Amino acid sequence: MLDSLSDVKKDLKKKMKKKSSCHPPSLSENDKKCIELIREQTRQLNQNNVTRTQAYLQFYLQYPEVHWALLGHMISRNVGWNMTDLKGDLLTKLLSERDQQAFFSFLERGSWLIFQDVYPQFSVYDLSVRGSKEMFHLLPFFNTSTFMETIWRYFWRSGDSYTLAIALVINEQSYLENNLIQNNHFKKTVTGSVSFKMYDFLRMNNILFPYYAGEKIEKTSLVGATARHFTSLHERILFGKNLYSILFQREEILAGVLKWAHKCPHTGSRKDYCPDLFNDVNESLPRSLYKRRIKNCLIKEGANRLYSPSLKYAWPKTPHEETKSGDWFEDWHVLDYIHEEANFNGEILNNYCKTLETIEFAVMAKEALLLREVE
Predict the structure, then answer these.
(1) Mean pLDDT in residue range 277-292
(2) Which of 1, 138, 266, 275 could pair covalently with 53 via S-S, beta carbons 3.0-4.6 A apart?
(3) Residue 208 near residue 352, CB atoms below 8 Å
(4) What phi and psi, each to the nearest 5 degrees, are found at residue 303?
């Protein structure tokens, strides 16, 4: 019986010893049908960033006890904005087309990987609730980690939403580490590139949670945090915990984020949260030199808004190769992350505004340099 975290620890230790000799359980005909159905549903919903993002929200609305679904929805929105930034006003002037494609492939692959790992887990939970009987014996057939198998069984008995959410943060980041961050192709084309270092230097790794403060649904407020050291698994897990804290430890933020998410369907354009600053129609003249447009997150008088296209116009759907099966879980000490403190200040606006202005200066500096070379 998994009634406490100490029971979870014992179960994980036991699984580590038996890991090499573990065999998936035998399946009934009904189990086999359920597996095929979940695989097909996951494939249908995993077409692009917009379909994934919507699927996370729909699941959260059905099962609000699964906190990660809302966290995943909001982070997935940010991934979509990062994707379309690559075709927007600023980054097209800083990055070559080759770099734009490489960065998109990296973001898209990560987004696809997480969804194809986590959504079957959600679907098995849905099956369990509908049938009033836990069905977690199906998880190995989706290559779910033994770590999450134990955690879902614990959650089924305890209803401990916090532990499930942080465990999913640990799981998804560990899964990404094995299948994306340590991938030789992406090490060469993205994380080891000069352009990726520029991302860090320009502080472009802001995760934003738009929300409506109070009763008014007029102006969007922002909370969030800035990621550092993206290639560090440890830092990504702590960052995920911080984002969870921002979203779930203050009721007014959670309520405001949900109001905003309901009212503003995800398109991938940053116009979704700030139509005064961004537009999904390009208002700029082609090939014109860039002039400063932003001050304190406001567009200067007479200046055009920044172009931020919808995802469907920025990038085509991308086919993906299936991942090799393999369980990342090797050390029960990852449970320690569940107890570590998280910093949940949430102040992001000032940093975000400075980031936009810094990128503008970088664009103008690059254009001035190119002009000098031509002369």
Answers:
(1) 87
(2) 266
(3) yes
(4) -90, 155
The structure tokens listed for 244 are 């969870």
Q: Which of 298, 287, 275 is nearest to 357 (CA)?
A: 298
The neighbour count for residue 151, using CB atoms within 10 Å, is 28
Do 276 and 299 meet the contact criterion of CB atoms below 8 Å apart? Answer: yes
Which neighbouring-strand residues pair with 279? Answer: 307
Confidence of residue 104 (pLDDT cuts 50, 70, 90): very high
Query: What H or E segment, with its residue span, contains residue 35?
Result: helix 29-45
Distance of CA 363 to the CA centre of its chain: 27
Q: Which two tokens stand for residue 177?
A: 């580490």
Q: How far apart are CA 262 and CA 146, in angstroms?
A: 35
Here the tokens at position 353 are: 């505004």
Alpha-carbon gap, residue 229 to 219, rounded angstroms: 32
Beta bridge partners of 147: none
In this predicted structure, the answer to whether residue 85 has a pLDDT above a threshold of 70 is: yes
Q: Over 80: is that where the pLDDT of 279 sits?
A: yes
Please tell me the predicted confidence (pLDDT) of residue 218.
Answer: 72
Amino acid at position 342, single letter: A
| Helix (H/G/I), strand (E/B), else coil: 40 | helix
Q: What is the pLDDT of residue 375?
A: 55
Dihedral, CA of residue 25, residue 26, residue 27 and residue 32, to nearest 10: 80
269: which 2 tokens? 């354009």
How many angstroms separate the CA atoms of 193 and 203, rounded?
Answer: 16
260 contacts 211 by C-beta, under 8 angstroms: yes
| CA 373 to chain CA centroid, nearest Å | 40
Pair 335, 8: CB distance under 8 Å: yes
Check: pTM over 0.90? Answer yes or no. Answer: yes
Q: How far is CA 308 from the centre of its chain?
A: 19
Residue 15: Cβ within 10 Å count: 17
CB count within 10 Å of CB 247 equals 25
Rg (CA), the chain: 22
Q: Residue 283 has which token pair?
A: 């208002």
